[in-house]
Amino acid sequence: MGCGVSKSDQFHKGSRKAIRSAVLIQRWYRQYIARTEMKRRYTWHIFQSIEYSGEQAQIKLYNFLGYLMDNFTPASNERNLISHIFRENEVCRDAEWERYFCYKNIEVPEIYSGPHLTFPLTVEQAVGLVEAFRNKKQLHSRYVLQLLLETWRQLRMLPNINRISTCQSKEITICGDLHGQLDDLLLIFYKNDMPSLENPYVFNGDFVDRGKDSIEILLILFSFLLVYPSEVHLNRGNHEDHIINLRYGFTKEVLTKYKLHGKRILKLLQKIFSWLPLATVIDQKVLVLHGGISDTTDLAILARVDRHNYVSALRPPKKRHQSSAGMSIDSDMDLDTSCRHKSFLRQNSLAFLKPINRESFQNRSLQDFSDRLKVSAVEEVEISGRRRSILDKDINPPENERTAAASSESLNSLTVVDEWKQILDLLWSDPMTQDGCVPNEVRGGGCYWGPDVTEDFLNRHNLQLIIRSHECKQEGYEFCHNRKVLTLFSASNYYDVGSNRGAYVKLGPDLVPYLIQYQASSMIRELTVRQSAGRTERSALKVLREQVFAHKSDLLCAIKRFDRNNTGLVCVSDWASAVESVMHLGLPWRMLRSQLVPGKIHGGMIDYHEWFNELAIKGVNADHIDQSLLETLYRHRSTLETIFRIVDYDNSGFISIEDFQQTWKLLSVYLKMEITDDTIADLIVTIDRNQDGSIDIEEFMEAFRLTDKKSRLERGRSMFMGTATDLTKLDGDPNI
Amino acid sequence: MMKNKQRSGRLVPAPGCPSVHPVSSEPVVPDVHKTIKAAFEAFDYESNNRVDVREIGTIIYSLGCFPTQADLHDLIAEVEDQTGYINLEKFLPAMTKVLMEHKFPSVPEDLLLQAFEVLDKENKGYLEPEQLAKYMTQEGELFTQEEMDEMLTALADHENNRVYYKDLLNQWTIDPDM
After folding, report:
1. Angle at the Cα of A87 (from A86 to A89), degrees rounded to 5?
2. Tens digit of pLDDT per residue, chain B (178 long)?
3. Sign of the C-alpha dihedral, residues B48, B52, B55, B60?
């Protein structure tokens, strides 16, 4: 066929027919591929929008709790419930910390089949630990605490910015976000060998949350850090933060795996996270940090800060208390003094600004928060003089010291706010294509920075490349800003099986980045790219449908505005406008319409009542509970769970009925909703089935999962496709 | 995902395509504009009403059209500027015309089946991958090697090393599925 010359008419006719057929098939196939590509894009967009709005929600919640802390009188119940998460250092001295974290009296039982560690750690033990985790073993809490203590000691000796070199023709390997996905770390070690004297590594933050093996990843990274302190470097990420961990699963993971000692482990990890270095510089030319930069980022300032003061990047830093013995590096303030002192200062800062109503407060990003503090810092100097007498009544420091401390602290507070912004930007910022630098409203912290800011920053610091992580990329990496910024993401299949590859980069003395991609999961190899894209799409749509359901009432209102004649029908355009006005996800709703509204279209119109009926929720004995309350519960389930975990002070997984009621009061204030005592009583009856006076948090959350017909159908089909490990992934909520 | 099967057995509109049911009304221009804008925006990364010319093919396909490569090149030539980008300003009227006139109608399923049967000269009910590859890469609007590899990975029955095209038709008219 093709270019042969033939005399027969029939043959010509035949070949023309074949060519036409080929063209038809090609046309069809290309269209099919393009449609798939389009779907892949909006699938991605769905996951990312929901992920970022979850982060934003967490920050809003945190701000709200901070607001409560500052504005409720000390005696109020709500304040007591949550004050403990703002108490970062309950115990005063290092010696007391040592006692608290003491592992020596923890016995390791005979039947324990996991690894036994002895210190100082050896390479064989570190390698052994990797093997053990590969074989699904768990490290005993005694060894965990011991390992963490050693790590803490090690990290305290490190500077904020590690400076390393590729001398001796060593290639340095840099890895991005791992997010608790042990399979990816194992795959990296398999392809690239484990860390050693000849094989240095930089791990660029976000080791924990979302994936199920966060603690194992930490333990592996810390062991190698201890064994090869000059070859293994860890940068802090925005998820190395106990406030974030409350929402995104790390806290839950530790408490589940370590029921007895989990709380202590988490406390020690808080300290360790705060001691993680902020950035790494390679050959004085390549900067590696987790989030990014802003137009005010200054490495000189970052090198100077007391990084361990920032236990959570979401929190304005605590003031350093000048004790009569002078300042100690790890000075922990006396609890009462610090609380009252802090709240006094904070109350003043908020009091001198425009009165905030609750609505506006909830929309604040941390950017705004830091600006407020900046303004107030100046005013603090003035008011501290006037208020001194009141302060003296509560706290009894010598007057001279008080004045001196107050003014110098207030002056310090300006620098402190600057420092805080430096760290926030470093951990939370994202690059953008336009020039300039604007607050990152999507995430709620850090900035969006443009190519001009990169250019300026690199010139000022005499650097040539920024390697950062923080954002999931389909290929595992992405260059931007004229190839001066490289985003590196090492958690493959992050949103779902098949959603993206992971990557790591190798840097030799020539400082040319050499990228290696991979994708963990044996199932992936059996699926074609198109098939796995299809799965990811279904998963994204399931998540999106849940979000849509959660806003049912608001959606109904918004749609009805387009249907003044009450026909029960709206056109696709109006439907799309209504949905976006409620969901605020910036998604291409018209393209998604056919996936979200499965019913027939009557001449271009959507029957929205039919649509809402499709989205039904069924819970355990939930029939007698008000539908709109269910909807609220569903929409805010992440927030609800976070608040529960905060209230559950001893991390037992249970809260008392009383605290449960208080939690609802808190939530109703936050949501500006009326939730009556009767409604709460109904909920309690439903959940506390064994009537022992306490609520099991897990059980409560389980009772309100979405089970609309569509998602059940998909879950059924997906079950056919998946292996056991993949099933958990499919059921998993990307927000948890 | 049974949605496409519920519609008319022949035509398979892509998501986002204005409803072109033969019985109901023809597409309305303002509606068409919105659809085109929605597809365009998905690739307008900087929100300045421009997309990279290399993405325009995907946009056109996703609007439910089945142009040949030649059709595509013609349309692009009409609307592109010298910068390698395409502006919404120019694209909107051109694309509206395409949709209103059904310029690149979809390929009916039975015609597609016939096309495969033509290539399957011995009427075996399947094609050898090498056979299909030969046609796709040497005839008509040639596939690149990459496109060919992709197609075979997606469509071939790996156990028997055959392309059972009748089964494919189901797949191509619904969503990519196992």
Report:
1. 140
2. 233 333 333 333 344 444 333 333 456 777 788 888 888 887 877 778 888 888 888 888 888 888 888 888 899 988 888 888 899 999 999 999 988 888 888 777 888 888 888 888 888 888 888 888 888 888 888 888 888 888 887 777 777 888 888 877 766 654 332 1
3. positive
Q: Longest Cα pair distance anywhere in chain B, in angstroms?
A: 54
DSSP element (H, E) containing A149: helix A141-155
> Structure pTM?
0.69
**Cβ within 8 Å of residue A460, ≥6 positions away:** none
Closest residue, chain A, to B168 (C-alpha): A29
Alpha-carbon distance A631 to A225, whole Å?
47
- Residue A591: left if φ>0, alpha if ψ -120 to 50, beta else—which one? alpha
Q: What values do phi and psi take at A396, rounded to 5?
A: -120, 60
**3-state helix vs strand vs coil in chain B, percent to 5:** 50, 5, 40
The owner of tokens 């969503």 is B175
C-beta atoms of B15 and A25 within 8 A: no
Task: Find, among B14, B122, B57, the residue nearest to A26 by Cα.
Answer: B57
Window 255-274 of A, Cβ < 8 Å to B: none
**Phi, psi for residue A411 in degrees, rounded to 5:** -65, -40
Our CA-based measurement puts residue B25 at a distance from the nearest CA of chain A, in whole angstroms, of 7
Closest partner CB to A601 (pick from B19, B139, B140): B19
**C-beta separation of A695 from A688 below 8 A:** yes
In whole angstroms, give the CA distance from residue A320 to residue A333: 8
Query: Per the structure block, which two tokens stand in for A693?
Result: 């006076």
Minimal CA separation from B74 to chain A, in Å: 15
Q: In this complex, do A38 and B112 lie within 8 Å of one another by their Cβ atoms? A: no
Give me the residue label for tokens 């200054």.
A298
Q: Which among B30, B41, B115 has the least Cβ separation from residue A588?
A: B41
A362: enclosing H helix or E strand: helix A358-362
Residue A713 near chain B (CB below 8 Å): no
Selected residues 32-71 of chain B with any CB under 8 Å from a CB in chain A: 34-35, 38-39, 41-43, 45-46, 57-62, 65-69
Q: Could you give the CA distance from residue A143 to residue A215 in angstroms, rounded to a whole number?
A: 13
Contacts 24+ apart (CB under 8 A), A297-304: A297/A422, A297/A425, A297/A426, A297/A457, A298/A422, A299/A161, A299/A461, A301/A418, A301/A419, A301/A422, A302/A160, A302/A161, A302/A278, A302/A422, A302/A423, A302/A426, A303/A159, A303/A160, A303/A161, A304/A160
Q: Is A109 on the interface with B (CB under 8 A)?
A: no
Taking alpha carbons only, the member of B103, B114, B152, B113 closest to residue B132 is B152
Do the Cβ atoms of A26 and B143 come within 8 Å? Answer: yes
Is the ipTM here above 0.90? no
Q: Is B91 exposed, middle or buried (0-12, 13-18, 19+ CB in 10 A)?
A: buried
Q: If we measure between CA atoms, which residue out of A407, A355, A418 comes closest to residue A382?
A: A407
Rounded Cα distance between A189 and A185, Å, is 6
In Å, how far from its chain's centre is CA A550?
21
Which residue does chain A place closest to B65, by CA atoms?
A: A31
The set of long-range contacts for B54-60, using a CB threshold of 8 Å and a minimum separation of 24, is B56/B80, B56/B86, B56/B91, B57/A30, B57/A34, B58/A34, B58/A37, B58/A38, B59/A38, B60/A34, B60/B95, B60/B98, B60/B104
